[in-house]
Amino acid sequence: MGGYVPPQSPPSFTQHGAALLPSTAAAPVCTAWLAAFSTASAAHDIPAIIALLLPDAHWKDMLSLTWDFRVFTGHAAVAQFLQDRLALSGMREVRASKALEPSVVRVGGLSWVQGSAEFDTRWGTASLVFRLVPYLPSQDGEPEWRAFALFSNLDSLHGVTERVGAHRTEHPPRASWNALRAREREFVDSMPTVLIIGGGHNGLMTAARLQYMGVSCLIVEKEDRVGNQWRGRYSSLCTHDPVWFTQLPYLPYPATWPSYTPGDKLGDWLEAYVSHLDLNVWLSSSLQHISFSPDTKTWTAAVLRPTGKVRQLTCRHVVYAGGWNGVPLVPEVGGKEDFVQAGGRVMHSSEYRNSEGFEGKRVVVIGSGVSAHDIAQDVITGGAASVTLHQRSSTLVVSTIALRQLLTRGGFREDGLPVDVADMLLHSFPMDIQKVTMAENMGLLREVDKDTLEGLERRGFMLNPGPEGAGYLFLVLTRRGGYYFDVGASQMIIDGQIGLKTGGEVSHLTSTGIAFSDGTALPADIVVFATGFGAIRENLKQTFGEAFTEGLKDPWYLDKEGELRAVWRDSGRENFWYMIGNLSYARFYSRRVALQIKALETGVWDGARYSIREDPGEEPHGLESAPADEVAVTVELSNGHAGPNGSAK
After folding, report:
1. Residue 322 and residue 379 share a domain
2. Cys staple from 222: which of 61, 412, 457, 639, with CB 3.0 to 4.6 Å?
3. C-alpha R_g of the chain
4. DSSP per-residue letters across 486-552
5. SS3 179
6. How would residue 143 be classed by pLDDT, with cut points 50, 70 and 90?
7. pLDDT per position as a tens digit, 154-204
8. Is 640 contained in some domain?
């Protein structure tokens, strides 16, 4: 599949929205546009719907009309999509939603009117977010309000009620609760419908979503405690996103929670989450063997328990929630034996725990991403004689203060939007639009960080604005690196507390330090390679074996429509799901994965998706199906020690 290709020119809404008047009243604009859209969609009048959109408008759908994550751009593509799916999906009863009040949104030099609605389909209830700008169809005509971006999103399934709030369980059985939970957790009387590999935040949130939709699931975790993915990293680890952005579903943090969560504290919270939500987790357990039968559409798995016994399981679905990283990447360099024999120490950033043993040492950290900065800051604070950061390529730097301002504008704040609504808005943008708005936002954030960025440049630090100036998000989506969320290390670089070497590569180690390819050298007692991790596929090979991965799509990075590939959607193998992302992504997409699984289990959906056309010779708008070959592999479970899979890495 071809990768994401950004548009050659800015979307036209950037010109139309610039004409938005300060006096624009959002409510009547949204009411009039929505009434016209509702009438047209009820009549399945596709030309009338198209007339309400800009010529280069984007329609992004998540499951509600396509059972996939799709983006259609321009009148022709949207018209074809509606022709294929409008009647089939049974879209009806489009009405205004109280979830989001109409508003005028301004981002830098851009502005638009924003509103929301909801509608029903053949299989569930969905939400609609629409963003409007005035459009002049001809020189002699009057401006018309047209949508430049639509987002339709499946929220719930007909006949499926989550057992929360008013629908919670009324009376537990009159028996020992602990004894009952022990039988449930061990699956003494039944088999799980879903087997989840990995007990980090992705696995836990997915299990919670499924459980309260009435789907039984079991999490298999190699660690002896839930939350060790966060406890096991360097002890100063802390989320770089504020508390309002990192909430877990069903159990919000208490009002006393710190704005930024320490890694150890988050690990404890995940452990409590399992207890409070009665999730089924097998700790100190590893997957030994797994196979899928296309005839029965079931998985069989052998799980080694801490007692030494192997438990045989049969389930319908497998969710991989073992992290987005492969094995640690450490460049092959000569001279390591000489360096170590002379008393030196070499490690990867994933091995770093705290500054104990670094006192009085000369430390060189290879890399300039989040982990590199955090470790450099930690060791110099802990008493290292010196620390030098080796920056091999340019890095985007944005402070957590600036990030917090950005998230605050998105509704993630103490007095902000309900988190589900803020999530909907955040994920409703097609990538082409989000790239433009993020570029505007990054301009605002750079003003917040102006003094820091100028100070770094004076020190020779190589700065990066992100792809097409669109900031850190697109580095996350397309590189999984290349950025630093500043929590103080930048000022240490500016002040000279943390040394800086730019350019060149490590040539080899010597008995006294590091020799670089540009002819320079640095003395060192300890070298930390903060050089990242391999692709997810390498982690999957460790978990499921090489034969299994041959049929899987590569997750993460962007497909040609700008959506993330394979993750949370079609993985390439039937009844196998990727669940990967930071805390915010896990909160939002765990519901999308759970809805798909529940729809399959109830027969609401047969698994057919409105697929992306892969090449010019393939029929457009076909239904894509996963391969159905027999797979049998022997595996050892890997639970994502490459990183906590969160916003702090």
Report:
1. no
2. 639
3. 26
4. ESSHHHHHHHTSSEEEES--EEEE-SSEEEETTS-EEE-SEEEE---B--HHHHHHHHH-HHHHTTS
5. helix
6. confident
7. 999 999 988 888 888 776 777 888 899 999 999 999 999 999 999 999 999
8. no
